[in-house]
Amino acid sequence: MKKKILLILLFAFTGLYSQNIEYQFKFDVRKFRKEFIKGNKQPVQLRIFDPNGKEIIFNVMESNISEQPIQNISTFKGISRDGLQKISFTLTRTSISGSYSDHGTEIYFSPVAGKKCTYKVYIPPKIQAGQELDVIK
Length: 137
Prior knowledge:
This protein is α+β, with helices and mostly antiparallel strands. Helices cover 20% and strands 39% of the residues.
């Protein structure tokens, strides 16, 4: 009996540990766009969350990525009010997506498929890329 309970707990903890850390939140893109235009392109505040659901407030400004403006697409950069996190994101007419750094960890946010005005903030699983494991013989 003890072995069965131990085995069940092992599977439960393995399942929980291997899942992405993720938090879903509501965000109104149209409202944010209106604030940005109303603010005459001055710094505006973006309220977003960390993967555990704690709110973070960023002061952001538009950051041009090309010489010619791209219709209905704006890019922004900013810093959290406490100065610890930097953010970069893209705003379209209907969605927002991007990432911010938190003590060397990249945290991403993007729309949740099939849910209107719902976004997720998450830390993706570590993926090893490159040629670190290649050996020349």
